[in-house]
Backbone:
């Protein structure tokens, strides 16, 4: 990056700033419906940003179209609200051209998994260093309430008055099938957990895919209340942590034990099982990640929430840059005069 | 035996054979040697649509045509003087492009029963009277090649692979070309395999000697050097030239080149070429589809690189939505469309000019994009460079239109000194004080390019309508109208920054032939021919399709008739009519083939004939 | 107190409040009652872009405008006579559409400090002098509603939800409309909740009584029934009408309707409506994107259903490539584009006419597609039906253009007897003897529709150029030209099968105003007004954009000036100029809003004024 | 389907035909390169078709663009060569409109997994009854040799002269991540096996996804020779069969045993393990299917070939038809006159 690099270098290196969450609030009015889960996601992201130690002018948020995709307007960073479904592809271009930037993608279940599904899975397989936040509200919010590829079978919406007949995607499974190197899930109504997961995603090198259960209180109210509300949450969610056994329940009285490849709920109090029998989470275990992802399709099991998978593998943008550097090392910086005149030429006097 | 040596102004030769017969290599060698002799020339390969068609079939024929001369050469030639046919299929497919009285050099050994049958010949045309209107020379090329190599102990397969150079040797003799350049090429190409150097050299010389000694050729020909501008030349195809023009734009603007693209015929070679030049910091990204190709390029431009995307018709259609995004964002972007036969998948390996309307109008909303086109293979260098200049200076996507004919065609190119290319100066925003993402340069109306990474310039852009100056989302009615007209005005204003249209010929008269893009050579030849006949005919080739050049309307008004030849159903014609309210006469060809100059000449004659003038009045 | 009863020809009322204030319901009730009284009318809702904006904000205001009268009503009204404003934001946003001297009915209780601040008022406009040029009536609507319900023990929230009906009651009194239809509607709507029937009825009556008894209203008005054609009417929006037109086409052709689509504003309601009618065997497929929407529809048409796809601008751009496929395949397909503000995402909830060029030209290659447009909300029924008729009869994709204004606007519709709709007869191939997939009907040039499942008709089609008659892949140059021209000829021939263009007004004269699509009402009102002034002005509204009607050129030639008002930068104008080489005068508005008739009237005046005529000459 | 149904009924029910493979050969010249693996696929499909007992006029082959996508031209059935990547979407429309037809999709690794990836995964999740044959040659054939999303990392091609830097997709994993109900793999050079797999795919109700290793002898010759050629095949391929232990090797002397979630190669002759220790294949085991799919990424393990996964779940087109039928049952056949006149209307005299 000749010229751009120069311009960037010319900026006197700023002393590291101590940010607060407020520094990440833009001057734009936030225009989601009152009560929308998107507010919490915004707040948590703004809270996590200061902890990353990265100047905000080095951050770019890219989004597609949807309520969720309004996200970049509200972040006091560089922001790019693009077209429906294309955020991962645009972000890929940004990141390849500018590996020095931290690039985030904000997308919805429609934006990311319906029209944008292909770009999403290709980003995952390439393992380009993007942090993808998928706001899953199991509905199309912005277009006022059609079902989405994550809506449950039988869902009655504006476009499916007789109930939908599509089997939904499991976003964790889709991203794992595409070999994402970081896959996680968190909840709009659990600020602390969300902060933790977002921070982990930010720190991961390579594509980070984060599914966030997000309540659309206007068109799909309560879709995730089982997993987010006090009364039911403890019994229906298992918070997974690397190296820890999978315990859950109001009184930490239940656990998950493997029966073949399938987790089974066991009681830790009736004497049939102890903590030592439980699955111990291992973020690096590919097969375990599939088992965890699959659990979302099995209603008798709690929903796993947390970092499901996190491994290192080569990053696309780094490989691209390395090829460039090694070409320059081998051949020297490109010389246009030489290029035009190389090979077979002849001279007319 | 001394043979007659005749002088010719120009000659067109077509080498034709099976895909596996090496006709492209043969043609390229003849081209190199001819270029070194100082002839002007133009070439066109003609590949089969199939990757590797079965030997001997009609659809598997591969051809290479070269037109060279001591005069200015503008096209690969309407009609051939010589056809080298390695098998019956090659003869059958190409005979219709041979002039009456033209020379056929046929490889008799290739005309065996199997091949004759595959080509659908009931009897051997070399032996019946069907070719009597041509000068037929049937030569046992295969056998003569075998003879030349008999003592080397090579495999049959290898021997067979040399036979094209026997044909080349004959042609070198016939047109008095030296063997050395090709022999030198053998030495470089087969440096690791001296046996092959030896074999190919022997065969080439054998072909030459055969011409010299055999009785069958009565005459040989000389084609004197053309009076080309002095300087250093190279041969270049349209796709190479486009790739290099893009690199030149990157070098001259100091911006890294990012190509986000998806392979498609006939545009893929630009990707192939650019991917070789990583030491120019060129990043090529083979995306999952055309949409990711263009959107990743938009992302790269947003990041401060110069984003480029290359494609052909169907891919262009897929990029429509994202082009609109680039328009409303106002980011620099170069979109290269190497046009091919349509609609839909159409004729993927053939040429056409039918994407002009799509380039100008093919997006939702009022979405103006500048469009430039190249006129010859080498001109693709300047077309691509110019597209980049405009894109960066005006912060706008620009469409560069090439076509299959230009892309694969080659011509000698007088290599420009790098210093002769204008510098391109991107205007980056750097000062956070008074920074507004949609403020504008007074002259160009361009907005500042505020790339991520600059403290204090944090801002947000997107596909929704934005407020003048601030760039904030705005639903305000008057602002929308203002911005729609502003984006249009910015594109219109480019007309002040491009050279005026120039006419070849008289500034007024009976007929002005107006073409655009790749029809340049055919029109130029036709108009030159008519002018030599004393006809009042001029030529104007449009390279700037949007905006049009400012003097264009005034020029058109100076002629009684405006003839618009296009490889489509009249797309430029429609634009000229609506823009200038002048009647146009159309000449349309939609055959996947370039114009022959004779077709244009005929049309000019028709217009000039009294009856037609009468009809019009 | 008896009050003056005045007669009015027409009135425009706008109800405005927070998104949660029920303004759409209120407006629709006023509309139903007014329709029952026999007035002609036109309505337009005006939603905020946000789903549910915070209460009291400017961007959260929701409005509903109705224009009704005893005369012909063509538009929802340029300017309002009455503005009902439930809060300060509603007043602020809508004041500019109120006529000087117009009536404001403000809910004083809504003008509290918080709301005033949110709307950016420094002082209360109901109390300062800022509204002195209007007739301001500030009414304690909230309190009066509470009073009316005080003894029912309802929650505050419920009580607050009733207050819009107080306002409606007042308007019913003021324009002498009966309460019964709305009370009946309460009874049906709240059948399961008698308390709500009671509460709403009470409030409605209280509002009416308030009008009757209070001192503040001096006059009430009567608007006599219009002289509408006798028959059965209903109110219908453009999107409903389009959906029903498609169903009608399915019924009349005996083909199952398959809708492959992807939601997008403002087209989604067509999907919503069609998905309700499964007993018509309508299959709606919400695809993963627009490309799957159109390609699944192509697949369905290939299978023998009638494929339809619905979208708006950006989605239309995405469908470009697949439209080209439908063209070369020659399968029937209806593509509905409900246009919105562009370019790119643009102004998604606003109207515009800027996708005409895209519809006609937005594909690679020569790719002609017939284009029809609707002129009013109810006309969307006939537009969609006609698109289907042409698609099936000519085996071609057809684009039907609607727009955001038509889609959401409503008008009374004289329900056509089903028997009055023409039958559509698809021509299926059934006989394997002499079956050729690309043979053609002599008259329509349509190819046979050979659906899978018929023994002996097995054949293969695709996006590559195909041989005339056989449909086999063909790279033959002449065949390609033949097929390109054939596909164009087929579309051109449709001009023989559509009604001629008709002029409203004199067959010649000073000015012909030529519009297309949804500008019909505004142009008609403007031209009628000018004609009443004795001006020589006529009107022609184009519904067939491609091919154009055969008599169009002849008509245009009969007027001194041709004025082309469009909600774009001149896309139809460009077509008329290139087609007929006539100068046009453009009137362009690109504000996301429909034309006001006054804007067109002014332009007509300008043309007719001597100065302008001089300028032109 | 009013009119169309009538037309179809009008055709006298033909007596069931006894077809031979020849009956499925169209009159078009086959134009792949001599030696191309596509020929074998064509031959096997033509051989299997007669066994299905379905009249050929009830069959449709839909394809996108690519060498592989030429397939429909050569089948004497109904055929539809469409545009790049869209075959699954087109086929979805055909099948929803005409559930009576048997619909096949022929696609390539570029067509199906690059530009068409999104349609492919959505077809899988919907479980519409398509039979998808993905000709994987790990290259773009028709456009003359660029790398594809299944090409191995580092691949040198026309578009990657310095080697590709994309991590490839694992087609089995992608389709399983999208919850395909039938997933299988077979080999161009194993005619018998391919016939078996194609028949199984045809018989499966719901989306069948079949990856076929196909040699492109012009641009990627030998990509799969390890798995297809005599010398190496036995030791590098494990043919999996439902209910059978996973044995492989020239002399059936090796087997696969699970170590946690990861299969390990064991010797059946050195006494360390016996057939009873081996994994027994179960087509209905979701987790096992992931384990098998993942094996392709582990070079030390043999490639599993055969039916990896096959379960039943509701089919999209059936659900759609059922909704239609039940709506008609409830409301009666749609009556246009009634529709136009229902609800609020008024009469002007
Ligand atoms: C090309 C295109 N197609 C369709 C749309 C309409 N559209 C806008 S947002 C959206 C879906 C939004 O759903 P999701 O991504 O889940 O976001 P949410 O609003 O639920 O946060 C659609 C279909 C569009 N803007 N552009
Ligand atoms: C929209 C579009 N983009 C690109 C192309 C060019 N194209 C044709 S086939 C192909 C890839 C073919 O690869 P694959 O699907 O693996 O098929 P194969 O030829 O290897 O069998 C491409 C990129 C096209 N025809 N249309
Ligand atoms: S519609 Fe739903 S997702 Fe969108 S802003 Fe409102 S609550 Fe949030
Ligand atoms: S290029 Fe490769 S895949 Fe295509 S036909 Fe030839 S061998 Fe087969
Ligand atoms: Mg959503
Ligand atoms: Mg391939």
Residues:
């Amino acid at each position: 990056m000749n010229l751009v690099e120069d311009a960037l270098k010319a900026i006197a290196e700023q002393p590291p700033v101590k940010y607060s969450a407020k520094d990440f609030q833009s001057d734009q009015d936030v225009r989601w419906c009152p009560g929308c889960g998107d507010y919490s996601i915004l707040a948590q992201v703004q809270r996590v940003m200061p902890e990353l130690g990265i100047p905000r002018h080095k951050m770019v948020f890219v989004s597609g179209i949807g309520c969720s995709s309004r996200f970049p307007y509200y972040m006091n960073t560089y922001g790019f609200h693009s077209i429906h479904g294309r955020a991962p592809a645009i972000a890929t271009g940004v990141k390849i051209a500018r590996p020095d930037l931290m690039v985030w993608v904000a997308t919805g279940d429609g934006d990311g998994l319906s029209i944008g599904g292909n770009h999403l899975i290709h980003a995952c397989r390439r393992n380009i260093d993007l942090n993808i936040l998928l706001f899953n509200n199991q509905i199309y919010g912005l277009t006022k309430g059609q079902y989405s590829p994550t809506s449950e079978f039988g869902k009655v919406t504006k476009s499916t008055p007789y109930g939908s007949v599509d089997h939904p995607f499991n976003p964790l499974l889709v991203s794992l099938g595409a070999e994402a190197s970081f896959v996680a899930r968190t909840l709009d109504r659990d600020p602390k957990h969300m902060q933790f997961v977002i921070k982990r995603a930010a720190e991961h090198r390579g594509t980070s895919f984060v599914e966030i259960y997000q309540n659309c209180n206007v068109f799909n109210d309560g879709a995730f209340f089982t997993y987010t509300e006090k009364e039911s949450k403890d019994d229906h969610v298992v918070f997974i942590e690397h190296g820890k056994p999978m315990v859950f329940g109001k009184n930490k009285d239940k656990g998950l034990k493997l029966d073949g490849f399938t987790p089974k709920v066991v009681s830790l109090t009736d004497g049939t099982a102890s903590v030592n029998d439980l699955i111990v989470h291992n973020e690096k275990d590919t097969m375990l990640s599939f088992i965890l992802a699959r659990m979302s399709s099995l209603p008798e099991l709690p929903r796993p929430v947390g970092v499901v998978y996190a491994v290192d593998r080569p990053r696309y943008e780094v490989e691209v840059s390395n090829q460039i550097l090694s070409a320059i090392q081998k051949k020297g910086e490109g010389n246009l005069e030489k290029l035009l005149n190389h090979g077979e030429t002849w001279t007319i006097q | 035996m001394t043979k007659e040596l005749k002088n010719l102004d120009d000659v067109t030769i077509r080498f034709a054979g099976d895909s596996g017969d090496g006709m492209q290599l043969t043609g390229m060698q003849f081209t190199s040697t001819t270029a070194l002799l100082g002839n002007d020339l133009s070439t066109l390969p003609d590949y089969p649509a199939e990757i590797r068609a079965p030997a001997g079939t009609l659809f598997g024929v591969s051809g290479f045509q070269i037109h060279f001369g001591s005069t200015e050469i503008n096209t690969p030639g309407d009609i051939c003087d010589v056809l080298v046919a390695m098998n019956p299929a090659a003869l059958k497919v190409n005979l219709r492009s041979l002039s009456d009285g033209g020379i056929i050099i046929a490889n008799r050994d290739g005309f065996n029963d199997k091949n004759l049958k595959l080509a659908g010949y009931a009897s051997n045309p070399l032996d019946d009277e069907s070719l009597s209107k041509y000068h037929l020379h049937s030569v046992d090329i295969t056998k003569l090649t075998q003879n030349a190599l008999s003592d080397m102990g090579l495999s049959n397969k290898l021997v067979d692979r040399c036979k094209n150079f026997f044909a080349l040797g004959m042609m070198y003799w016939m047109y008095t070309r030296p063997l050395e350049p090709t022999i030198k090429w053998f030495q470089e190409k087969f440096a690791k395999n001296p046996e092959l150097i030896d074999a190919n050299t022997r065969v080439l010389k054998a072909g030459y000697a055969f011409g010299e000694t055999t009785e069958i050729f009565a005459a040989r020909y000389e084609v004197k050097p053309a009076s080309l501008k002095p300087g250093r030349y190279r041969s270049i195809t349209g796709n190479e030239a486009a790739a290099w023009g893009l690199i030149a734009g990157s070098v001259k603007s100091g911006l890294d080149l990012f190509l986000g693209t998806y392979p498609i015929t006939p545009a893929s070679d630009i990707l192939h070429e650019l991917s070789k030049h990583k030491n120019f910091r060129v990043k090529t990204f083979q995306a999952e589809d055309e949409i990711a190709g263009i959107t990743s390029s938009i992302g790269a431009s947003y990041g401060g690189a110069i984003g480029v995307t290359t494609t052909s018709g169907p891919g262009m259609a897929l990029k429509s939505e994202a082009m609109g995004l680039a328009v409303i964002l106002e980011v620099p972007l170069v979109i290269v469309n190497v046009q091919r036969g349509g609609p839909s998948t159409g004729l993927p390996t053939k040429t056409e000019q039918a994407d002009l309307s799509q380039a100008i109008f093919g997006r939702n909303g009022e979405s103006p994009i500048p469009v430039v086109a190249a006129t010859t293979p080498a001109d693709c260098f300047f077309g691509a460079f110019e597209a980049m200049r405009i894109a960066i200076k005006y912060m706008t996507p620009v469409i560069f239109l090439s076509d299959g004919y230009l892309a694969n065609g080659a011509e000698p190119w007088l290599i420009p000194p790098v210093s002769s290319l204008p510098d391109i100066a991107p205007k980056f925003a750097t000062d956070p004080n008074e920074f507004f993402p949609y403020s504008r340069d007074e002259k160009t109306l361009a907005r500042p390019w505020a790339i991520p990474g600059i403290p204090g310039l944090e801002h947000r852009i997107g596909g929704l309508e934005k407020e003048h100056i601030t760039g904030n989302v705005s639903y305000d009615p008057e602002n929308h109208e203002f911005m729609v007209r502003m984006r249009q005005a910015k594109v219109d204003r480019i007309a002040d920054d491009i050279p005026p249209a120039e006419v070849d010929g008289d500034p007024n008269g009976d007929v002005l032939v107006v073409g655009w893009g790749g029809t340049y050579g055919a029109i130029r030849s036709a108009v030159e021919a008519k002018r030599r006949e004393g006809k009042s005919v001029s030529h104007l080739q449009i390279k700037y399709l949007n905006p049009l050049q400012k003097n264009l309307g005034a020029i058109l008004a100076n002629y009684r008739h405006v003839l618009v030849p296009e490889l489509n159903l009249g797309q430029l014609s429609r634009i000229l009519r609506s823009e200038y309210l002048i009647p146009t006469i159309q000449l349309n060809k939609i055959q996947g083939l370039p114009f022959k100059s004779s077709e244009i000449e005929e049309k000019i004659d028709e217009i000039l004939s009294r009856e037609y003038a009468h009809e019009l009045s």
Remarks:
- The interface with chain C takes residues 31-34, 65, 67, 83-85, 114-115, 117, 140-144, 146-147, 149, 158-162, 164, 166, 218-219 of chain A (CB under 8 Å).
- Residues 245-280 of chain A form one domain.
- The longest helix of chain A spans residues 316-331.
